[in-house]
Amino acid sequence: MVVAGSLLLFCGKMGAGKSTEAKKIALERNAVLISEDDWLATLYPDQIKSFEDYINYSGLLRSLLKVHVQNILQAGATVVMDFPANTKKQRAWLKSLATEIQANIEFTYLKVSNELCLQQIARRCIEQPNRAAFDTEAVFNHVTQYFEEPSDGEFYNIKVIDKETM
């Protein structure tokens, strides 16, 4: 019998470094990396022009990926989900991917100030000009109003990376 793999999840405001951390961990652990941004860009090129578009297409993507991710976990592989776990609703969905099949969950919260997030977003716009239209201070402020810090009761163990003290 194959033991289910582990699901690695990340929480942090826009620009906190979730994708950078996800890529690093996936490489270190030889894990399957599933990036929401990559899937959305491939499946819906040039169709996401607003936050509302993102919400719509992200919902479609989740229904597509649920069984796929669970199958990978059931094969014993570690899956790194580069999806935002920034609201209780998002975290509940991501958590269900693992709990429904009794897979382990590793949850990391990148605790970063708004100022540092905005600095990192500005740097990202220079490095990835294709993101400049969406990665703006206005979008950051809009999505940050929905951000909910994770609570101890949501996950058995929350690893916190506090970038302000690094």
Helix and strand topology:
Blueprint: E1 6-11, H1 18-29, E2 32-35, H2 36-43, H3 51-74, E3 79-84, H4 88-99, E4 104-111, H5 114-127, H6 137-144, E5 158-162
Parallel strand pairs: 1-3, 1-4, 2-3, 4-5
Q: In words, what does this structure look like?
A:
The protein contains six helices and five strands. The chain is globular and about 50 Å long. It is of the alpha/beta class and 166 residues long. The chain has one domain: P-loop containing nucleotide triphosphate hydrolases (Rossmann fold, 3-Layer(aba) Sandwich), CATH 3.40.50.
The CATH homologous superfamily is called P-loop containing nucleotide triphosphate hydrolases
Q: Please report the total strand number as a whole number.
A: 5
* Main β-sheet, spatial strand arrangement: 2-3-1-4-5
Computed CA radius of gyration, to the nearest angstrom: 16 Å
The CATH architecture comes to: 3-Layer(aba) Sandwich
| CATH topology (fold) name | Rossmann fold
> CATH class, anyone?
Alpha Beta
Indicate the proportion of strand residues: 15-25%
End-to-end separation: 42 Å
Task: Provide key terms for this protein.
Rossmann fold; ATP-binding; nucleotide-binding; globular; five-stranded parallel beta sheet; 166 residues; single chain; P-loop_NTPase
Structure at a glance:
GO terms for molecular function: ATP binding. The protein is of the alpha/beta class.
